[in-house]
Amino acid sequence: MTTTRIDRLFTKLKAENRPALVTYFMGGDPDYETSLSIMKALPVAGSDIIELGMPFSDPMADGPAIQAAGLRALKGGQTLDKTLRMAKSFRQDNDHTPIVMMGYYNPIYIYGVDRFLTEARASGIDGLIIVDLPPEMDEELCVPALRAGINFIRLATPTTDDKRLPKVLENTSGFVYYVSMTGITGSALPDTSKVAGAVARIKGHTKLPVCVGFGVKTASQARAIGAAADGVVVGTAIVNAVANVLGPDGKTTADPAEAVATLVRGLADGVREARITAAAE
Amino acid sequence: MNKPVEPNSFRTGPDEQGMFGIFGGRFVAETLMPLILELEEHWNAAKNDPAFKAELQQLGAHYTGRPSPLYFAERLTEHLGGAKVYFKREELNHTGSHKVNNCLGQILLAKRMGKTRIIAETGAGQHGVASATVAARFGLPCVVYMGATDVERQAPNVFRMRLLGAEVKPVTSGHGTLKDAMNEALRDWVTNVEDTYYLIGTAAGPHPYPELVRDFQSVIGQETKEQILAAEGRLPDMLVAAVGGGSNAIGLFHPFLDDKGVAMVGVEAGGKGLEGDEHCASLTAGSPGVLHGNRTYLLQDSDGQIKEGHSISAGLDYPGIGPEHSWLKEAGRVEYVPIMDHEALEAFQLLTRLEGIIPALEPSHALAEVIKRAPKMGKDQIIVMNLSGRGDKDIFAVAKHLKMDV
What we know:
- Chain A is α/β, with parallel strands linked by helices.
- Chain A has helices spanning 5-16, 32-45, 64-75, 80-91, 105-111, 113-122, 142-147, 165-170, 192-203, 219-226, 236-244, 256-280, and strands spanning 20-26, 49-53, 99-103, 127-130, 151-152, 155-156, 176-179, 210-213, 231-234.
- The longest helix of chain A is centred in the last third of the chain and has 25 residues, at 256-280.
- Chain A starts with a helix and ends with a helix.
- Chain B has 2 domains: 28-61 and 98-208, Rossmann fold; 67-96 and 217-402, Rossmann fold (3-Layer(aba) Sandwich).
- Chain A binds chain B through residues 56-61, 63-64, 67, 71, 74, 79-81, 104-111, 131-134, 136-137, 154-161, 164, 168, 179, 182-184, 187, and chain B through 17, 25-35, 173-174, 179-180, 183, 186-187, 190-193, 287, 289-293, 295, 298, 300, 302-306.
- Chain A: Keywords: Amino-acid biosynthesis, Aromatic amino acid biosynthesis, Lyase, Tryptophan biosynthesis.
């Protein structure tokens, strides 16, 4: 496979000796236009990789915050087609920030895998994280995606033991997303020293960068995780920043893009200090 | 979609990947994958272990009350004036439905795996009650997820579960019905991977659940085969069963799938009619998609978002169906038809008066189809219907629809 934006980014960050800040937001939350403004604000505020959430009615691996964000987006009329269009629109002024679409398989299956991959490629999508497609189901989307030149980023979890890791890593590309705990998105962050051990274990099996997510909410957590990982993923905290500026009627009480940008600037400072702090300790 | 070539046998599925044709599979988060593989390994060992079989049989006989009778419904047959109608009386099982067959099998499996905590999802509460029952019997803590809407409309079953020592957790996410309860149970499982066994209530979900639930329920069809041969000296012409997730139907059908002369009809909840969204007829009015770990027929919109179903019967109120039914539909082996709420209600009342049996609203759907078909069949023909549950739980809902006070 030719190098992708994701590969180029990690090469650059390696030279800078700092981890990536990976930010998740829900496409279409609370509506298309607001959500696009959030997306555009992310790299400006210091995000290195954007995870573009595709809303799904039944997000079995997500906690209450992301569930609610997905329902808001669907209520606001978001569809997979619109999420792709959002990426395309973002690409008009940004050609370097990698976009990874994250969600569940059914909307893609219904859209049609081939049609989806063609559109995704045309919209400047770099990678996919599909929660309910384990390696056992690789023929569904992973293999066609790789053929289409789109990275398929796999989740590795604390239950993925050394015996299973090679299978999980086999068709993974771009980076490995290590889920720091067993559980749903937005739960409490576990002991960061455990996370460092897990990252080391995965690195023993792959040369790919390892990003860590699930539970990272603050700049200090981002700094601590970023000392060991190649990237830090923040999702629920960003989704909450949007929810916090929505009134009971769903109308915004402040600019959601600015609320998200403020949070992301803090997180970006956190990851930039990660290795410096680690070296000083 | 191309129709698969008719197989030599309809009873060999699923394949090693857990597929029935294009249906089934293992569409789950990576966190759950090792657990599902572990379950498969233990299941493969258990199903070939005579001691496991013997323990299950023993419990079936002395705890559940198996075999359940095959009853010739003489007055109903006379009333309909056509085929002879037999009922497989699963409603006489301990806990009042076929659900206990699966729960006993799975709790033995959980014990074998060394799991110490049981979780389950429930809609009407029948599976919740059966899970709470077997958890009490084996001394394991049990958490039952139930949509908040269902908690409200199924109060007696909620109380039963609590009496049995289970913790009932109302689910407010989504729309608070069975599919949300299943999402929440999966979220619990993904969090508590070490000690927890997820006791799924129907023949759906990721492989190996559809297979193992079917096998635990197949006792229904196996007994039926022996009983009808004893009573009539031949196999029936038709089997009829209600399908929600489809476990009672697959349990009755599976042992007969290769008996060519036996026609089979699965009856879905047509709700208030298939024109709008107020039904649960995923096979008749849905399309293939991926939800809750398997590919199967679903009620969904053009964006692949899952719809809420509607049925008068909370037990059929699920927008999906077990994957083996999807396969049997496409293979043309089983016919699936919808029955409306009002037809089920009429059938419920008819059976109550004619045979002195109060059926659950789920098999009342199957009964409504029998009422349509039997008169058109010859008097020498035989229908066996799965009377999968008793209707005590439904008297409040029925009273409401009949505008009566309880």
